[in-house]
Amino acid sequence: MNVLVFDIETAPDIEGGGRLYGLEGLSDADTVRAMQARRRQETGGREFLRHHLHRVVAISVVFRHPRLDEGIKVWSLGEADSSEAELIQHFFDGLERYTPTLVSWNGSGFDLPVLNYRALINGVVAGRYWEEGGADREFRFNNYLNRFHKRHTDLMDVLSGYQGGAFAPLDEIAALTGLPGKMGMDGSQVLEAWLAGDIQEIRDYCETDVINTYGVYLHWLVNTGSLAPDELTGELDLLADYLRNSARPHLEAFHQAWRGSQGGGDDG
Fold this sequence. Notes:
It is built from eleven helices and five strands. The chain is α/β, with parallel strands linked by helices. It has one domain (about 5-260): Nucleotidyltransferase, domain 5, CATH 3.30.420. The protein is about 50% helix and about 10% strand. It has a five-stranded mixed β-sheet, with helices on both faces. The chain starts with a strand and ends in a 10-residue tail after the last helix.
């Protein structure tokens, strides 16, 4: 299995917003409030910023690959003090090296469009990602860009039958499959944590979100006939062992909330 499950966390692009809207001289918090107010005027009440004004502050992944010593790894790319450009380049370098199947929850609707814009703004090189068959014929029939190809599987998109009215929150689907769902914080708290400089808290939260996505993905593989039920048990056990032995408190807490609540059960 060569799978990279990913999730991003973002904060308003304060520098960009200040330059675009003439907000220089304001504090970071006041700039954000002004950007949100402008957005509310545009939308009639919704303050969620356009994709290109989301600065990427964390990218977390679950990587399942036979070359890994433990077979699986959960981490956030770069370091807590890495620049946005470094984080995004790390992400696309992984695609360049391994050509994994990408898996996300709402990646087509949010994560990838944000990465597209922010990679462009930051001068990131992402040749493999943009490949459509010019250099590799296989990518004519299965690439990262086509919504209906499987080289990137947006689980929310696929499970909803590509119907926006049927979209579901990851937290609820994860919980219904026996996973913990949200832990520690939620997306609405990321901005406050970012303004306070709590980037490690954001990275830890993003990692728990991406583990939930991976767990849902494994159940979906059974649903599609790509993974046998006994293989699902093995994959979930592999993940559980990794989390339990990680020596990282937030991953151990995830394991305890997941497997501890089941009394050691092994079926996610």
